[in-house]
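Lab notebook, bench 4. The sequencing result for the construct came back, and we need a structural model before the next group meeting so we can plan mutations. Quick request posted to the team channel:

Model the 3D structure of this chain.
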Amino acid sequence: GAVCSCRHEGGIIMLWRILLWLNRKEVKNMAVIYVALIVKGKRTYASVPAVLKEQVKEMLIDLELEDLITE
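Done. Here's the predicted structure in token form:
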């Protein structure tokens, strides 16, 4: 019984790790989309959801587009 329970818990932990990794990847993808929209003038940095702001900011800085980072 204990081995089965342990194996089950390990599977749950692995599933959470995968979900967190996928979520991180999804956030990065969304940040890329917002950067593209900001560069095209369709969105502003102020309109970026809070959860994405830090990544969008980093990407704009990497692209030497700091002037587009306005609240």
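The two ends are 56 Å apart (CA to CA).
Will bring this to the meeting.
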